[in-house]
Design goal:
10 strands
Length: 183
């Protein structure tokens, strides 16, 4: 017997949210499947918050830093990355979440969600052309940088534990790896 999961569109997912069906659940839509989100432990909450503050100071008015807010992707996905560095579109975000063309790069912090962040989400983000995606491995305290989406995967993958990195969207900005990992 073959088991087939029900797939949902973004519109159907939004209707469930509006109807309150998902109000007591921490979920996100990934490739048409409603997936439970792992709860945040203290290291995750601390590090992602501090990194967002650091990036906000570093990038100033050039971007908007969104923490744990949805992004809408054309592959029936509406994940909630820990940090999304996006264009400053102001009130336009009242009408829609950021689309791939509005996103400079994304950051996830993974402990119990590490496999989902490194495997599933990296493919989802590459598939829609998000140029850069970072995953902080909270178990090993290193930063995994995915770049150059190609055929549904990232062509480049770097693992860093220190030094600085220049985001593709802002080559004039040096980001401290330690600040991103540990806050």
């Amino acid at each position: 017997m073959t088991v087939i999961a029900a797939k949902w569109t973004i519109d159907e997912y939004h209707r469930m949210i509006d109807a309150g069906i998902l109000s007591d659940r921490q979920v996100e839509l990934l490739k048409g499947e409603i997936v439970e989100m792992s709860p945040e432990g203290e290291p995750h909450a601390y590090s992602s918050h501090e990194a967002a503050e650091y990036l906000s100071q570093l990038l100033g008015n050039r971007t908007t830093i969104r923490q744990a807010k949805p992004i809408t992707l054309p592959n029936d996905s509406e994940p909630e990355p820990d940090i999304a560095i996006v264009q400053r579109l102001g009130r336009e975000y009242r009408e829609h979440h950021p689309y791939p063309e509005n996103i400079f790069w994304l950051i996830e912090y993974g402990n119990s969600s590490l496999e989902k962040d490194l495997e599933t989400k990296s493919k989802i983000y590459a598939e829609v052309g998000i140029r850069e995606y970072w995953v902080v491995n909270l178990k090993k305290l290193h930063l995994v940088v995915f770049r150059e989406p190609l055929d549904g995967e990232y062509a480049t993958k770097l693992t860093l534990t220190g030094g600085t990195i220049q985001p593709l969207a802002f080559p004039d900005v040096s980001v401290s790896v330690v600040q991103i990992i540990n806050g």
